[in-house]
Amino acid sequence: MSMNIVDKKRRLLMSGCAALGLGTLAVAAAQSKERVIKVTAKRFDFSPSVIPLKRGVPVTLELTSLDIPMGFNAPDFGVRADMLPGKVAKLRFVPDKAGEFTFYCDIFCGSGHESMSGSLVVT
Amino acid sequence: MGNDSNNDTNNFNGNDKGSDIDRRSFLRLAGLGGVIFASGLSGWAGAAEGGAAANAADDFFFVQLSDSHWGFEGDVNPDAKGTLKKAVATVNALEQLPDFIVFTGDLTHTTDDPRERRQRLKEFKEIVSALKVKTIYFMPGEHDAALDNGKAYQEFFGKTNYTFDHKGVHFIVLDNVSDPAARIGDQQLAWLAADLQRQPADARIVVFTHRPLFDLYPQWDWATRDGARAVELLMPHANVTVFYGHIHQENHHMTGHIAHHSAKSLIFPLPAPGSQPKRSPLPWDSAHPYQGLGVRTVQTSARESGYAITELAVGAVKS
């Protein structure tokens, strides 16, 4: 009898732990799930211009231009891609450090080119 | 005048005869990116006065101007239409004229209108035609050339990459701006490699280009995408120095034994790399007009492989 009670308690404890474990796993999975973010460019802006990212969580940027050829360059993460009208470039990387980092257009696109930049905010 | 003590001067001097700085010291100091001397215009004054440095047959000096951005309008330079003309006057007022003058790009400020681009190039050319020295080497910056792959620029100034030789120095002009993606490109790199192959390993080589060939601060587009390939080609040569523009301020940097010197602009100074969040121009200081703008003289010496660089302020000359 006493053994049964102990067993029941143990089973409850174990199932509780399992539930807790699954919950932790689920949260972890949500946090580490690769993110996909669409980014568009047009003379002379990026949208969005501020991109929040999670450190250690892979991200794929889907990049396209709405008018003329542009470039997306995030030198702090060593990544760049052309942004062309009518095409989607997929740029995947893992932000490996926290902070605010500049990305900019690296294809000279006109009179507003030099102010065409944005921020990756990695937390 | 040119050697007015009010001038903003500092000699980045590889062969100052009074200091016995040898090449090794020069390179070490240059590697720190520091300004070495702040004095009068001894770098070019020595030549102008026929000093020891000027006696050797192959000694000469040239003038570098950069980033005049003709056509720019904005609060950061209320004398945007006068600064280039003052720079011309500054150079013309030198007591001894340079052997030649080089403009390292961004002659004009960019415009999306191709007709206006040509108008600016035309006006720029007319203004600099007042220079007394008629041997002038030009190259484009991205503001001149990146929107049409150098087409309009070439109509006024010809080729965007070329070489020339002067008194024992081999000069190479590299175009890293006509490609809007800031690439020198395979074709030009092959041309560079072939040219360098014809030079002895100890040839004195000077490269003129607009953008830095190394990653100075890519976050502000202060780089050339394939610049490392050019540096790699230059590396086997013992005596290579690069003069460039683009960043609107002095900067001295070493990649191995190769020295890279950027020039001030003639329109507005930009902040030091990464010193503020955005690459916005430094504001005009009415108490110190033209501060941060200038031209430079570069003195060569047949006996030394370093170069004496002297910065001259714009506006110091009474024109």
The gist of it:
The complex is a heterodimer of chains A (123) and B (319). By secondary structure, chain A is of the alpha/beta class. Chain A is 25% helix and 40% strand.
Structure characterization notes:
The complex is a heterodimer of chains A (123) and B (319). Chain A has 123 residues and is α/β, with parallel strands linked by helices. Chain A has two domains: 1-33; 34-122, Cupredoxins -  blue copper proteins (Immunoglobulin-like, Sandwich), CATH 2.60.40.420. Chain A has one helix and nine strands; from the N terminus they run H-E-E-E-E-E-E-E-E-E. In chain A, strands 2-1-4-7 form a four-stranded mixed β-sheet, with no helix packed on it. The longest helix of chain A has 31 residues, at 2-32. The radius of gyration of chain A is 23 Å and the shape is globular. The termini of chain A are far apart. Residues 16-30 of chain A have low confidence and may be disordered. Chain B is an alpha/beta fold and 319 residues long. In chain B, the strands form two sheets. Chain B has a six-stranded mixed β-sheet, with helices on one face. In chain B, strands 5-6-7-8-10-9 form a six-stranded mixed β-sheet, with helices on one face. Chain B is 24% helix and 19% strand. Chain B has helices spanning 23-31, 42-48, 52-55, 83-92, 114-128, 142-145, 151-157, 186-197, 227-234, and strands at residues 11-13, 60-65, 100-104, 136-139, 162-166, 169-173, 204-208, 239-244, 251-255, 258-262, 294-300, 308-313. In chain B, helix 8 (186-197) runs parallel beside helix 9 (227-234). Chains A and B meet through strand 8 of A and loops of B.
